[in-house]
Amino acid sequence: MECIAIRKGKGGKKKHREGKSKGKKQNKNNNNRKKAQKHDNSNQHAAESNTQAKGKKRKRGQGSSLTKLQEKFRQKLEGSQFRWLNEELYTKTSEEAYRMIQDNTALFNVYHNGFESQVSKWPENPVDTIIDFLRTLPSSRCIGDFGCGDARIARTLADHMNLIHSFDLAKANKHVTVCNIKHVPLKNETLDVAIFCLSLMGIDFADFIKEANRVLKVGGTLIIAEVKSRFTQQNIDGKVAKGDHDSMLNGIESFVQLLSELGFENVSTDIENQMFVLFHFEKRESFSKKKRKHKLLTTNFVFKSCKYKKR
């Protein structure tokens, strides 16, 4: 029995050695296969990376040229839309303009983007001039911004003035109250200052001023900034053509007379800026609702439309 046991033991050791030998060879073969596979994968990955890099370069090149073309087309389209909208807003009533913008609020953004692009080329923005003036007033003053656009006055002076009402045809941000500025949601004689900054658009602009008279306190300030060319016969980018200076002065005089009929006294008229005229008026009298509605104006003043060149 011991011999049998010994043979089994020797046989077991032999088999064990053979198993070890085979295992080592198999592991070695597996390692070789892994190395070869890893090498192949590395080569494949490098090839794919090179292909992708070349593809990206081609795409970048194609995308860049397309983007430039698309950007040029977009600017041309927006410029065309702005000029069309500009003409529409100057030649419609405020009710028609309000309905047009409410039916398609995207037009509001198109117009104001185009408008900001034009004003950015001016030596001075009238909004900045008005903001500087408002900073000199006590914070308790109540302000109304008629045709506010993106409500820059309210946003800039939020920490300085206690209350600024901003009105326009569409809601650019939380500061804006949407309405026709011929009918703003304010009680009679609530404002200390009313502002029309390049916003006396539409054929019924005199009704905007009547509304300002309603909501302003007696002795309150009316600030109006308007493009110089609107007081002349020539209307190119706001500039007054040579020989039209007298025409502009006559237009300004007629405008001041119109405001006098609407209850405002002219405090100052600044024509020094190259692009716009800045008026300060003081409200000297209020009108009853009936008188505002039926008041006949004897001054024959009509704003010219502000036209812009194609870019």
UniProtKB/TrEMBL annotation:
Keywords: Methyltransferase, Nucleus, rRNA processing, S-adenosyl-L-methionine, Transferase
GO MF annotation terms: methyltransferase activity
Residues covered by region (Disordered): 1-72
Comp. bias intervals (Basic residues): 7-37
Database matches in Pfam families: Methyltransf_8 (PF05148)
Entry's EC annotation: 2.1.1.-
Classification via Gene3D superfamilies: Ribosomal RNA-processing protein 8, N-terminal domain (1.10.10.2150), Vaccinia Virus protein VP39 (3.40.50.150)
Biased composition (Polar residues): 43-53
GO cellular component terms, A-Z: nucleolus
Main subcellular localisation: nucleus
Signal peptide (UniProt feature, chain positions): none
TM regions (residue ranges): none
Assigned protein family: Belongs to the methyltransferase superfamily. RRP8 family.
Main function: Probable methyltransferase required to silence rDNA.
Protein name stated in the entry: Ribosomal RNA-processing protein 8
Species: Aplanochytrium stocchinoi
Lineage of the organism: Eukaryota, Sar, Stramenopiles, Bigyra, Labyrinthulomycetes
